[in-house]
Amino acid sequence: MNLILLGPPGAGKGTQAVRLVQDFPIASISTGDMLRAAVSEGTPLGLKAKSFMDAGGLVPDDVIIGVALERLRADDVRDGFLLDGFPRTVGQADALEQDMEETGRKMTAVLLIEVEDEEIVRRVSGRRVSKSGRTYHVEFDAPKHEGRCDIDGSPLIQREDDKPEVVRERLSVYHEQTMPLIEYYDERGLLRRFDGSRSPTEVHDHIRATVATLRLEDAL
Ligand code: AMP
Predict the structure, then answer these.
(1) 36 catalytically annotated
(2) What is the pTM of this model?
(3) Ligand 1, from 31, 34, 84, 172: best to mutate by most atoms within 8 Å of Cβ?
(4) What are the structural domains of the chain?
(5) Is residue 88 flagged as an active site residue?
(6) What pLDDT shows up at residue 132?
(7) What is the pLDDT of residue 2?
């Protein structure tokens, strides 16, 4: 099963990815997480990506496409993938489609999580992360002790690109460069829409039911 999670920053794609890989035996791949790891390790990729990320823009296609496609060739992706944050442009989607054709893979579905812009700004600017990558929200998912991770006690920080002015820029990039993918995948009959204003559990229940049905249909 090969799936894409599509939606604006802060729609809950990461949260849903964590839950869905517990339901289905597929590899969850987040290009955002891969880039953040590269930045913190100071690799050549990280050095190239950092300024684009901090400004809320996209890392150029010629950098990210190679990284994402290489990841899809790893052993753990044999039984399928759940992509979170890739593709984000029509160029990336074309490259992915071509690569899947060449490797004999078929896309199962594209899961679009829809949330209004104002709600996104509210959600993302309250988001805090710990060193281990666990995500909290100051209002909706607060840690037990303010400013500290429940798991490892490390101080929580706000991602540079979660600051309100950067969130607005990321949203405008989403509208201009990523939203065309909605039509792109709709035309291919792959798009499934989910109401991201619902609770994470409700969204998860809906997605899981849809994916389970798709899997049954695939097996027939
Ligand atoms: P995310 O955690 O998915 O919101 O990604 C954080 C940042 O990483 C984005 O704002 C972009 O700067 C960069 N990024 C992640 N995935 C991609 C992609 N597929 N194409 C270009 N830039 C990306």
Answers:
(1) no
(2) 0.90
(3) 31
(4) 2-26+79-115+178-219 (3.40.50.300)
(5) yes
(6) 83
(7) 97
H-type alpha helices, 24-72? 31-41, 44-54, 61-71
From atom 8 of ligand 1, which residue's Cα is the shortest distance away?
32
Which of helix, strand or coil describes residue 135? strand
Ligand 1 site residues (CB inside 6 A) read 9, 31-32, 35, 52-53, 57-59, 64, 85-86, 88, 92, 161, 170
Say if residues 10 and 124 touch (Cβ distance below 8 Å).
Answer: yes
Q: Which two tokens stand for residue 66?
A: 């190679």
Lookup: tokens for 126 = 């309250």
Q: Which residues of the chain have pLDDT under 50?
A: none
For the segment 109-132, what is each residue's pLDDT rounded down to a tens digit?
999 999 999 999 988 999 999 988
Give residue-wise pLDDT tens across range 143-152: 999 999 999 9
Please give the number of the atom of ligand 1 that sits closest to the Cα of 86.
19
Question: What does the pLDDT read at residue 183?
Answer: 98
Tell me the best of 15, 16, 59 to mutate to test the pocket of ligand 1, counting ligand atoms within 8 Å of each CB and taking the most: 59
Q: What is the pLDDT of residue 208?
A: 97
Q: Is the dihedral of CA 177, 182, 186, 192 positive or negative?
A: positive
- Bridging pattern class, strands 135-137 and 127-129: antiparallel
Ligand 1 centroid–CA 59 distance in Å is 7
DSSP 169-198: HHHHHIIIIITHHHHHHHHTT-EEEEETTS
